[in-house]
Amino acid sequence: MPSRDAFEYESLQDIESIVGYLGALADGLKRGHLSLSSNGKLLALRPTGLLRLSVEAKRGKTRSRLIVKVSWREDAPDEPKTAEPLKIRPGPA
After folding, report:
1. For residue range 63-87, what is the model confidence (pLDDT) as tens digits?
2. What SS3 state is found at 17?
3. 34: closest CA among 21, 46, 22, 51?
4. pLDDT at 53
């Protein structure tokens, strides 16, 4: 059975810090190598091929949520693209 490494991190951050993290994630995806570390825990990832993107957004009366997930298979051939393009833009709707 293959080993499974996991990394989790959660904290309150200002917008500028989160934008920096998202930029580092985008750069790591582009380069094909991500390294995540905190509190002595380190996990290196090598995204390749087609990646699955999942975006979920919710807005309530007092709390909003944005969940972005990126996943890939390290042991399988590329799967064909399956969805319409996602449009994300800054500014009011």
Report:
1. 999 999 999 988 766 666 777 888 8
2. helix
3. 46
4. 94
43 close to 7: Cβ distance less than 8 angstroms: yes
Residue among 34, 68, 33 at smallest CA distance from 53: 68
Closest C-alpha to 79, from 58, 48, 55 = 48
Q: How far apart are CA 91 and CA 61, in angstroms?
A: 20
DSSP assignments along 37-85, one per residue = EETTEEEEE---SS-EEEEEEEE-SS-EEEEEEEE--SSSPPPPP-SPP
Q: What separation in angstroms does the CA of 66 have from each of 57, 58, 60, 74?
A: 5, 7, 12, 26
Q: Could you give the count of Cα atoms lying within 13 Å of 54 in the half-sphere of its Cβ?
A: 5
